[in-house]
Design brief:
By secondary structure, this protein is an all-alpha fold. 82% of the residues lie in helices and 0% in strands. It is built from 2 helices and no strands. The radius of gyration is 18 Å and the shape is rod-shaped.
Length: 80
């Protein structure tokens, strides 16, 4: 049985994971037009470059937060 803190951290970890997946798809949606333009020797729009970089940064931050929350959950009791 998990401790209450570990259970709470599990729910926070799941929420962070879902947010990271959504951020990944948003970043991909903005990166693909950049890739398409560069593949066809065209200049990509700056807004797509900007949003893909922002999304990548947010994704990395969320993965780091997920590792942090997971380590807190393990220190708080883990799975038993």
């Amino acid at each position: 049985m998990m401790t209450p803190l570990a259970q709470a951290m599990l729910y926070v970890f799941i929420a962070i994971w879902i947010a990271a997946v959504v951020t990944w798809f948003v970043g991909a949606a903005h990166f693909l037009p950049v890739w398409w333009a560069l593949a066809h020797q065209r200049k990509p729009e700056r807004r797509h470059i900007r949003w893909s970089l922002i999304s990548a940064g947010i994704f990395v931050a969320l993965v780091g937060a997920g590792f942090g929350v997971g380590s807190i959950a393990e220190m708080a009791g883990g799975w038993g």
